[in-house]
Amino acid sequence: MEADDIVIMENSLRYLSRNLIFPKKKDVNNPGVIFHLKFIALNLSTVMFLTGNILHLTINIKRKTYINLDLDIALAISLFGSYYFNFSYIRQVKNTINIYKQLSDLRSYGIPKDFYATNKKLNNYSKYHYIYIVSAVLGLSVAPLLEYKKCQKENVVKNINEICGLIGSIWLPIDLDSIPYKQMYYIFQVYSSFVIYQTSSLISFSIMETAEHLILRLNHVKHGFLDALMEREDRVRREKFSRAVKYHVNIIRISKLLNTSVSTIMFGHVLLTGAILGCIEYRLLKSYSLGAICLFVGWLISMSMVCIGGQRLRDQSLSIGDAICKSNWFDVNKELQRDLVLVILRCQKPIFIDAGPFGYMTYAMILTVLKTSYSYLTLLSSTS
């Protein structure tokens, strides 16, 4: 059963709506063609940022000059990865709406303990995350202005002609190193950064927040099983047990729908984050760069948020079987004991946030990505 309205994640969904990647409240039941066209138009308006970066990278490789090659690769992968996030999310937005509606259903199985307190806490965290991501993009935007003189000195020392004062190295078939074209393009880069990076970071936070709501439901399921086993009357015990089983099956179904929606995003996240971090680490070993630090922290936090949520979801799903084993299960009749064995066996298969062929989003995945980034760092160091 689904709720008529979504009553969870109010702040996150409002921020996503502002970025045109989630429908407004009045359109949530039917996000039509206009909604998708607005999203496509917004993202297409930023494509020149990625185009200029890729052209700079291509020309430097072709000429074998390799100027700022590490930052070019990191920025290109970072922009491409964010587009990948955003378009993968919008492609599954109807499934995502379905998930939020099912998690907003407080009638079928009751209101989980601490639901309102947890929802309020997550809404506050969403505000803090929004402030953080705005600050991170501002840091990325201000960095080239703070490092303007440093860039000019590098041009003289290395006898090159890079355009200073822009977010990353770019090349376009027009003279950008003059007033007002450079200033106009810088403003365009700042606008594009907010559209692209802010949206992708909000998606990562919303996935973590969804995992937290699933954890809340799993805890509710666990207490449902324990309450059934404490019941003395066989008929009432069986009714409560059957209700808990149905609730558990429903949560498993929602978790599978979540993986249908986000596994493609997580696959890209794991695949690209290691490369981005490795390139930035290589740059930071050579020289300080505020913009590079902002990118590094942004991608690492984005990955860590989902992995922490995924680890907690895994642990909570396993805790149901552990709690049943520690209960007075031996006091119930043999028929119910046989059913308990089936429940415990199912609980041995934990619920994860799936990352496709890379496995699952857990603490171990953070270490895997960091190891991958070190491999890229070693590769870049050996070829420089």
TrEMBL record:
The chain crosses the membrane at residues 33-55, 67-85, 129-148, 257-276, 288-308. One of its GO terms (cellular component) is plasma membrane. GO terms for molecular function: odorant binding; olfactory receptor activity. InterPro entries: 7tm6_olfct_rcpt (IPR004117). The keyword Glycoprotein does not apply. Signal peptide: none annotated. It is found in: Cell membrane. It comes from the Eukaryota. It is a multi-pass membrane protein. GO terms for biological process: signal transduction. Keywords: Cell membrane, Membrane, Olfaction, Receptor, Sensory transduction, Transducer, Transmembrane, Transmembrane helix. Belongs to the insect chemoreceptor superfamily. Heteromeric odorant receptor channel (TC 1.A.69) family. This is Odorant receptor. The gene is OR32.
